[in-house]
Amino acid sequence: MPDAVPSPNAGAEPLATGEGLVEFLDLMRLMRERCAWKASQSHQSLARYLREESDEVLEAIEEGDPQHLAEELGDLLLQIYFHAAIAEEAGEFTMDDVIAGLTAKMKRRNPHVFGPESQTGRRYSIEEIEELWQAAKAAEKK
Prior knowledge:
The protein is mostly helical. Helices cover 70% and strands 0% of the residues.
């Protein structure tokens, strides 16, 4: 079994701070307020764009062009923010709720990184990591 590999970003450009995400959230709220088309959209009316943007991300991955991938990921992120803004306006949930839920899920599904297992110093194989992930995912469904 191969050992887990180090982060692909090790030694690369500085990591993102996330400041732009907050700025874009504010921008999305403003666009929903001031743009009739954006204000008229619903989860249902945007569903096709979400699918299209997801497909375009996959195409960019296949191309292997990092700049194209970054552009398409931005378009997909727009869709995520759009849906979160709609939900926020309806009082259903906020982008903070989405991120908090995702953060909690990643911590649950990666006990080798965040749980007691992370304190052992043991390196887990890819197979073991996948097993931990599936076990955590199955436990969530109970």
